[in-house]
Amino acid sequence: MPKSGKPKLAVWKFASCDGCQLSLLDCEDQLLSIAGKIEIANFAEASSAIVKGPYDLSLVEGSITTEHDEERIHQVRKASRFLVTIGACATSGGIQALRNFSDVKEFISLVYARPQYISTLRKSTAIADHVKVDFELRGCPVSKDQLLEVITAYLGKKKPNIPNYSVCMECKLRGVVCVMVSQGKICMGPVTQAGCHALCPSCNRGCYSCFGPKETANSSSLAGWFLQKGASREEIVRLFRGFNGNADAFRKESEYYEE
Amino acid sequence: MRSKTIKVDLLARVEGEGALHVKINQGVLKEVQLKIFEPPRFFEAFLRGRDFREAPDITSRICGICPIAYQLSASLAMEEICGIKVEGQLQELRRLIYAGEWIESHVLHVFMLNAPDFFEVPSVVHLAQVHPEMVTTALRLKKLGNTLMAIVGGREVHPVNLRVGGFYKAPAKKVLRDLLPEIRWAREAAIRMAMVISGWEFREFTRDYHYMALSSPDTYAVIEGSLASNRGVDVPVSKYDEILTESHLAHSTALHSRTRDGGTCLMGPLARYNLNYDHLSSGARELAVTMGLQRTCHNPFRGIQIRMVEFVHALDEAERIIEQYEVPSRSFMEVEPGAGTGYGCTEAPRGSCYHRYTINKEGIITDAKIVAPTSVNQGPIEEDLWDIVAHNMHLSDDQIKFICERAIRNYDPCISCSTHFLKLTVDRE
C-alpha cells in the first residue's frame, strides 16, 4: 500500500481501440469518487503522473500482437497484484484476431507499402495466453456497470458479481420479445455471455456477440438453426468470426463451416 | 556543447501510443520525428471478404473515441455504391448522434486532456482539487454527450443502432425532448466555461497552414459536402485520393498523408473554423466574438477555444434537431448490394475521416481504404514541433518536452486510430 493508504490502480494498453479504458472516463458520476478510494497510479490516457509499481489492481486492455508486447505483458504481470483483462481484445484477441485465419504477410502488404517496416506476430492473442489473469471482463466495449462492479468488488474484497448466463436471459429480464423466434432474425444471443442488457435485440436487431461465448455455449446447435433460417455457410463463418472470433467455441465453429 | 540524451517515458493524455524523437547537433536542429508504434491491426485487410453491411460495426472498432465517424463514413460509402441517399429525419438523427460524439469528445479533450496543461497538473483528478466546480461541470457536460449517443445509438462506445441505410430503431420523441432542459443548461455552462478558458494564457504561435475539411454551402459540414481547402481545393469526396496520398515512413505504423505536391495539411476544429465559420450557429459565432477570436485563427494553441465554439455549435444543433424531431415512418431505407466503388467522408471531432470501398454484386467487400485524420495531422504536428524546438533550443530538455507535449495535444491526436506512450528523446551532440 502506498503512503496515501489507497490501493494503486494501473491501466495498460495493448492492441486496441481505447474504447474500454475510455469507459472508465465515461463513468462521469463515479469518476471522482473512484479517485477518492483508489490512487490512479498509472493511466497514460488520463494522467501524466506515473507512480511506480507495484500496482494493486491492473486493468489490461488490448491483445498481444507484437514481440515487444509479448515481453511487456510479463512486466505488467510482475508489477500487478490483481490483473483484470477488460474487453474482447484482451480476453479473446479482438477483431484484429481475424488475421489468425489468414496469412499475416499478405495482410501487411495489403495495408503497408513498405512491409519491411512492420513488425508483428502471426496471431493476435488473448492476455491469458501469455500470463495468469485473475479476472476477465468481456465486451466490445466492456460495460461501464461491470467495470465499476469489478473495481468496487476489489475495494470491498469480494468476488465481482458478473453473470455468465446468456443474452437470452437478459432479453427475458428486459421483456424483449425474441427477435429470432418472432422475426426470424439471425441472433448470436443464445451463445453469447450477458452484460449488455440485451442491447441489440432491444434495438430490434440480432446480437452480434460483443461479449463472446458464454460458458458451455452450444455453438454448433445454434449454427444449425442459422442454416434452417436460410443463412449460407459463408454467413455462418462471418457470424462466428467477429469481435470474439478467436475464442475457442467460436473459432471451432467458423472453421467447421469454412471447410 | 555537452552531449546528452534525455528519455521521458510517456506522453500522456493522448489516445494511442507514440514517441517523439528530437535530434540537435552542435546547436542545430537536425531531426524531429513523431513516432507512432501502435501495433498494426490490419482493418483494411480483414474487411476483404466481409459483407458490406458489416463495415460500420467493424470499422467503429478502429477508434473507441470516435466510433460514429467510422460508422457513418462507412455507411455513406456503401449507400453511394448501392445508389441510395439517406435524407430527412434519418439524416437529422445521424447529425444528432454525431453532435453527441462531438460533445463527448470535445469535453474529453478540453477538460480532461488539455486543461490540466494550463494549470501544470497531471490530470483531471488533480484539476478537480484546484477547480472542483469546473471539473464537476465538465463531467456533467460529458455525460450529456454520452447520453445522446446512448439514446440514439444504444450505447456510448461502439453504438449498435446505426446501419447502412439508417437506424435499426428510431428513438422515441419523448426521450429526446426530455433532454432539452439539460441541453439548455449545457449551453449556458459551456459559455461560462469558455469565458473562464479565455482568461488562460495562450502561447503565441502561428503558421501558414493548409486547412482541409468538408465544406457545404448550407451547413457547418459534418456528414455532407465536398473536400475543400484554403488553397483552392474543392472536390467531391470521391476525388480524395487525387488530393491526398499516403506514404509509409519507417518511424511509424501510421501512414503519413501528404498532398500531391508533398505538402502537409491540417484537419480538425481549426480547419473547420477557418473554412466554414459562416455556417456555425449564431450562438457559436457570438461566443467566438465574446472570447475575442477573429473570423480566422491560425494558432493551434487556441484549439481549446475553437473546440468550445464547436461544442456550443453541437449543442445548438442537438437542440434544433430535437425540437423538430418526428419519429420517421421507417427507421431505415432498404439497401440492395450493387457492384461498385463508393466513397464516404465525415468530420470526426479531430478531422476528416475518409473511407473507400469496392464491393461485388453479392455485397462482399473486395477492397477497402480508410484514412484517419491523425495520419493527415502528423504532418503539421511535426512541422509545429520543428518550429517550436528550433526557437526554444536554449531551454532545458524538460521545458522543451513540456511545450512539445502541449503542441501535440493541440491536435487531440487519436493515435490509436492510426494505428500510447509518447516517449520523448532529445539527442544533443
Compose a concise summary of this entry.
With 259 residues, chain A is an alpha/beta fold.
What's the number of domains of chain B? 1
Largest sheet of chain B: 4 strands, mixed
CATH architecture level-2 label of chain B: Orthogonal Bundle
Remind me, CATH topology of the largest domain in chain A?
Rossmann fold
Task: Explain what the structure shows.
The complex is a heterodimer of chains A (259) and B (429). By secondary structure, chain A is of the alpha/beta class. Chain A folds into 2 domains: 8-155, 3-Layer(aba) Sandwich (Rossmann fold); 167-258, no CATH class. Chain A is built from 12 helices and 5 strands. Chain A has helices at residues 19-25, 31-37, 67-78, 88-92, 104-111, 144-155, 167-174, 179-183, 199-202, 219-228, 233-240, 248-258, and strands spanning 8-13, 39-43, 55-61, 80-86, 135-137. The longest helix of chain A has 12 residues, at 67-78. Chain B contains 15 helices and 14 strands. In chain B, a hairpin with a 2-residue loop joins strand 4 (162-163) and strand 5 (166-167). The radius of gyration of chain B is 21 Å and the shape is globular. Residues 1-11 and 416-422 of chain B have low confidence and may be disordered. At the A-B interface, helix 1, helix 2, helix 5 and helix 9 of A face helix 1, helix 4, helix 5 and helix 6 of B.
What is the topology?
The complex is a heterodimer of chains A (259) and B (429).
Chain A lengths: L7 E6 L5 H7 L5 H7 L1 E5 L11 E7 L5 H12 L1 E7 L1 H5 L11 H8 L23 E3 L6 H12 L11 H8 L4 H5 L15 H4 L16 H10 L4 H8 L7 H11 L1
Helix pairs in contact in A: 11-12
Chain B lengths: L3 E5 L9 E8 L2 E9 L6 H4 L8 H6 L6 H16 L5 H32 L4 H7 L1 H22 L8 E2 L2 E2 L5 H5 L2 H19 L13 E4 L10 E4 L4 E2 L4 H4 E4 L8 E4 L9 H8 L5 H9 L12 H22 L15 E9 L2 E9 L5 E7 L1 H19 L5 H13 L5 H4 L3 E7 L1
Parallel strand pairs in B: 2-14
Antiparallel strand pairs in B: 1-14, 2-3, 4-5, 6-7, 7-8, 9-10, 11-12, 12-13
Helix pairs in contact in B: 3-4, 4-6, 4-12, 5-6, 6-8, 8-12, 11-12, 13-14
